[in-house]
Amino acid sequence: MTFPIPTLRREHGQLMLEDCALADLAERFGTPTYIYSAAAMTANFGAYTQALSAIDALLCYAVKANSNLAVLSLFARLGAGFDIVSGGELSRVLAAGGSAERVVFSGVGKRRDEIVQAIEAGIRCFNVESVAELETVSQLASGLGRIAPVAFRVNPDVDAKTHPYISTGLRSNKFGVPIDDAFELYRRAAELPALAVSGIACHIGSQLLDPAPVAEAADRVLSLVDRLADAGIVLDHIDLGGGLGIRYQDESPPAIDDFLAPLVARMQGRRETLYLEPGRSLVGNAGLLLTRVELLKQGEEKSFAVVDAAMNDLARPALYDAYHQIEAVVENDLAARQYDVVGPICESGDFLARSRMLAIRPGDLVAVLSAGAYGMTMSSNYNSRPRAAEVLVRGREAFPARQRETVEDLMRGERPLPAA
Ligand SMILES: *Cc1c(COP(=O)(O)O)cnc(C)c1O
């Protein structure tokens, strides 16, 4: 069985991420814990920069995929920009040493205070998703005596052929402005003195396994950019979003350079800088969730392995019926049996995997692979469960990237109602 995480291997029966034995990490940090590989993240980032070396490009890591400060600082040091969707993410980027001049701000519902925070920080660009937002940004920038750089996020109406919850480029989605309206909107934006019309953006969806829809979206965007230039509205960048998929089970996503080749070909010889906003493809297969088997339970029709991680830690299986490969951390000579791997939460949707052959006993450790993206960032405190710890490994070093939450952390800011 091969692993989707390139820096994961088995040595003398023990799972190792880079040069750290997962069993040792469980001993040291407890479970459940997210473990990330710096080498895998660095290699993925390197594959993007390599594939883009022939053109002017800025890689804006999509912070929502994994927003731990250790991860953000690693990407900042590699020269990344950042794609944010909230003021909280902007604060994280700055706290991690990222620079505001490399930040683009996406999202359909930016609040006024978040817009002010971003203008004051001096971000690279607002990816504006509606006329209402355009007017708000203009008004707030003008009040601050600043010029806000803007791009419209256009909805190119292409089918990304991915899970409907993560498909964002269809006419029926809430995202962006219809591409057919964009020309008029740019003319309007160009007349607002507190705005600098700087680019155009689109992002058609996530976990894309086929490069064709992105290339098709690029063609629609480029033809609009050329029409705008003819009308005297010259853009300095074209942001084609993120979305490249990864292997969770038996998918075969294109390699990073194959995915980018059609985009690079289209950008060669053009004056605009290409921005990309990859998230999952940088971090998804650089991480796993380490959890311990609490007990094995024989139901009437199925056997269950109840583990100490749950849907509040990793929501993807419950939310999208997503598949994550599960591996026993230490190999043994038990006969494998079929289990549903479930958490202790009071919901039947609380499963991490279904019908998996595993050789495990109570107390054993298992690793839930491909959990580096949309894992910790989608976690919650449901059932008053403190969130997991996070560890970033780099060779033999295991850096404690986030302490496990305590129940006191969960109750901070609350108090019981006094007697009337
Ligand atoms: C989520 C998101 C991304 C990142 O998507 P991935 O599939 O993780 O690469 C990029 N841009 C925008 C606007 C997003 O909402």
Structural commentary:
With 420 residues, this protein is an alpha/beta fold. The chain folds into two domains: 8-37 and 284-411, Lyase, Ornithine Decarboxylase, Chain A, domain 1; 106-278, TIM Barrel, CATH 3.20.20.10. The protein is built from twelve helices and 21 strands. The chain has helices at 22-29, 38-51, 69-77, 87-95, 112-121, 131-144, 179-190, 212-230, 256-267, 280-283, 316-320, 407-411, and strands at residues 8-11, 14-17, 20-21, 33-37, 57-62, 81-84, 103-105, 125-128, 148-155, 177-178, 195-201, 237-239, 273-276, 287-298, 303-307, 326-328, 337-342, 351-358, 365-368, 389-394, 397-402. The strands form three sheets. Strands 4, 14, 15, 16, 17, 18, 19, 20 and 21 form a nine-stranded mixed β-sheet that branches. An eight-stranded parallel beta barrel has the order 5-6-7-8-9-11-12-13, surrounded by four helices. Strands 1-2-3 form a three-stranded antiparallel β-sheet. Strand 8 (125-128), helix 6 and strand 9 (148-155) form a beta-alpha-beta unit. The longest helix has 19 residues, at 212-230. The radius of gyration is 23 Å and the shape is globular. The mean pLDDT is 96. Bound molecules: pyridoxal-5'-phosphate. Pyridoxal-5'-phosphate binds at residues 62, 64-65, 83, 106, 203, 206, 241-243, 277-281, 373.
